[in-house]
C-alpha cells in the first residue's frame, strides 16, 4: 500500500468516525429532549455559544419568552452544531481534494459552497426566499458535479457527500425553526446516516487494495438490497421516535411481543403516517393520539422482522462465499440491534440503550457498506481479467496499481516478459490490453 495517499486516507477515516459520533450525539440530544434548547439557528439565543451567566440568561429569556433558557440542555444542542460544522469542513476538504485535478469541477464546488454560505446570513436576516434560492442553486451545482462526473470513482462520491452535508445543515435548521416537525427530524436522521455511509464508502475506496476474489462479486446486489431495506427501517425508527411512539405499546411484559397485551391492538394507520401537517405546530412531546402512535410502533416492528430475516440470510450468503469474519460481524450486529430494540420497550426507553440502538443501526449500515465496497472493488478488478487469467496462479505475480484507478485497480504482470519468451508450450490466453489479439503463455 502506497504511503503517498496516507493524509487523504486519514482525512477520509477521521470524517467517517466523526460522522458516526454525530449520529450518536445527535440521538443523545434528541432523546434527552434538548432538540429545541436553542430556539434559533445557527446561533443559540443570539450567541455563538449559549447563555451561562445570569445576565445573559435574563436577556435570552426576554428575547425568547416562549423558550426559557435551560443551560444544561443548550450546551448539548450547540456543541452538536459545532461538531457538525467541523464535519462539514472535513467533507469540504475531501471534495476539494477530489476535484482539484479537474479545474472546472473544482470551481463549481467552490461556487456552490460560496452560494450556500451566503444563504446563511441571508436566512438570519429573514430573507428566506433569497436564502432558499441560493441554497437550491448551490445544491444543484454539487449534485450536477456528482452525477455527471462519470468514471471518477470515489471522487464523485466525495462531492455527493458534500451535497448531503450541506442539505443536512438545512434540515438541522428546519428541525429547530419548524419545531421538531417529524418528517424533518426523520429526514435529518436519514441524512446523517447517508452522510456516514457515503464517507465510509469513500474511506474504503481509498484504502482497500486487494487481489481479485471472484467468490464475492455476486454479493453486491444482495448487499444493495440490504442497504435499501435498512434505510427503510431507519426511516421507520426515526418516524417512531419523532412522533414519540417508542412506548406506544406500553412498558414491560405487556409491551412485547404483544402490544398493550394484544396481538392486534387498536391502530390508526392513516393518522400515524400523515407526513406533512403544516408549519407552526410544536411537535415536542408529540401530537398524535394513542391508536396512531400504536400503528407507527407496530409498523416499525414489522419492518424490523423483514430486515432481520433478510440480513440473517445475507450473513449466511456471505459466510458461504468464504467471508466468514464479515458474516459473523453482520449476524452479531443484527442480534445486538434486535436485543437493544426489545430492551427499549421492556425497560421504558433508557437513554443509554436508546442511543445505542441508533448507533447499532449505523454500525449495521457500515457493515453493509463495507461489503458493498469490497464486492464492488473485486468486481471492478475482475473486469480487467479474462476468465482464464483468473484461474492462473498469482502467487509469483508482481501486482501493480492501475493508473486508471490508483485506489483499487490492480493488474498482474508476472507473465509480461514471458509473452515473448521462446519455447513455451503452454496454452496461450488473451491479455486484457489486447482484447484477445495477443497471447501470453501460462507459467
Blueprint (SSEs and pairs):
Layout: H1 6-31, H2 54-63, H3 71-99, H4 103-124, H5 128-148, H6 154-177, H7 182-207, H8 219-242, H9 269-272, H10 290-320, H11 324-347, H12 351-382, H13 387-390, E1 399-401, E2 410-412, E3 428-430, E4 439-441
Antiparallel strand pairs: 1-2, 3-4
Helix pairs in contact: 1-3, 1-7, 1-12, 3-4, 3-6, 4-5, 5-6, 6-7, 7-8, 7-12, 8-10, 8-12, 10-11, 11-12
User: What class do helices, strands and sheet pairing give?
Assistant: mainly alpha
- Taking pLDDT < 50 over at least 5 consecutive residues as the criterion, the unreliable ranges are 378-443
Percent strand equals under 5%
**Biggest sheet: strand arrangement:** 1-2
Terminal CA distance: 26 Å
- The geometry reads as globular
Give average pLDDT, whole number: 85
Number of domains: 3
- SSE order in H/E notation? HHHHHHHHHHHHHEEEE
Q: Helical percent range? A: 55-70%
Radius of gyration: 26 Å
Amino acid at each position: 500500500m502506497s504511503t503517498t495517499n496516507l493524509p487523504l486516507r486519514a482525512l477520509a477515516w477521521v470524517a467517517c468516525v466523526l460522522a458516526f459520533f454525530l449520529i450518536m450525539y445527535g440521538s443523545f440530544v434528541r432523546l434527552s429532549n434538548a432538540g429545541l434548547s436553542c430556539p434559533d439557528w445557527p446561533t443559540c439565543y443570539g450567541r455563538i455559544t449559549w447563555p451561562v451567566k445570569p445576565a445573559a440568561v435574563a436577556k435570552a429569556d426576554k428575547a425568547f419568552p416562549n423558550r426559557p433558557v435551560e443551560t444544561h440542555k443548550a450546551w448539548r444542542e450547540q456543541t452538536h452544531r459545532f461538531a457538525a460544522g467541523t464535519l462539514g469542513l472535513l467533507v469540504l476538504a475531501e471534495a476539494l481534494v477530489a476535484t482539484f485535478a479537474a479545474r472546472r469541477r473544482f470551481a463549481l464546488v467552490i461556487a456552490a459552497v460560496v452560494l450556500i454560505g451566503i444563504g446563511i446570513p441571508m436566512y438570519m436576516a429573514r430573507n428566506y426566499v433569497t436564502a432558499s434560492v441560493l441554497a437550491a442553486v448551490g445544491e444543484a451545482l454539487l449534485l450536477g458535479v456528482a452525477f455527471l462526473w462519470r468514471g471518477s470513482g470515489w471522487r464523485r462520491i466525495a462531492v455527493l457527500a458534500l451535497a448531503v452535508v450541506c442539505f443536512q445543515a438545512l434540515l438541522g435548521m428546519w428541525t429547530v425553526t419548524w419545531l421538531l416537525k417529524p418528517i424533518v427530524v426523520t429526514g435529518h436522521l436519514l441524512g446523517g446516516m447517508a452522510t456516514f455511509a457515503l464517507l465510509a464508502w469513500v474511506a474504503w475506496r481509498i484504502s482497500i487494495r486487494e487481489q481479485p476474489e471472484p467468490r464475492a462479486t455476486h454479493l453486491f446486489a444482495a448487499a444493495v438490497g440490504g442497504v435499501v431495506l435498512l434505510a427503510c427501517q431507519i426511516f421507520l425508527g426515526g418516524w417512531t421516535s419523532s412522533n414519540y411512539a417508542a412506548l406506544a405499546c406500553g412498558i414491560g411484559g405487556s409491551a412485547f411481543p404483544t402490544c398493550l397485551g394484544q396481538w392486534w391492538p387498536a391502530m390508526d394507520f392513516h393518522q400515524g403516517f400523515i407526513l406533512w401537517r403544516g408549519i407552526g405546530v410544536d411537535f415536542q412531546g408529540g401530537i398524535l393520539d394513542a391508536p396512531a402512535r400504536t400503528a407507527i410502533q407496530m409498523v416499525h416492528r414489522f419492518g424490523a422482522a423483514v430486515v432481520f430475516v433478510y440480513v440473517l440470510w445475507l450473513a449466511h450468503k456471505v459466510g458461504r462465499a468464504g467471508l466468514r469474519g464479515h458474516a459473523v460481524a453482520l449476524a452479531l450486529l443484527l442480534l445486538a440491534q434486535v436485543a437493544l430494540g426489545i430492551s427499549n420497550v421492556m425497560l421504558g426507553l433508557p437513554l443509554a440503550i436508546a442511543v445505542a440502538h441508533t448507533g447499532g443501526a449505523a454500525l449495521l449500515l457500515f457493515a453493509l457498506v463495507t461489503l458493498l465496497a469490497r464486492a464492488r472493488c473485486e468486481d471492478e478488478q475482475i473486469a480487467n481479467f479474462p476468465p482464464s487469467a483468473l484461474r492462473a496462479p498469482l502467487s509469483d505475480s508482481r501486482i501493480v496499481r492501475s493508473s486508471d484507478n490508483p485506489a483499487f485497480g490492480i493488474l498482474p504482470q508476472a507473465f509480461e516478459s514471458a509473452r515473448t519468451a521462446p519455447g513455451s508450450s503452454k496454452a496461450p490466453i488473451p491479455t486484457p490490453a489486447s482484447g484477445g489479439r495477443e497471447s501470453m503463455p501460462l507459467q
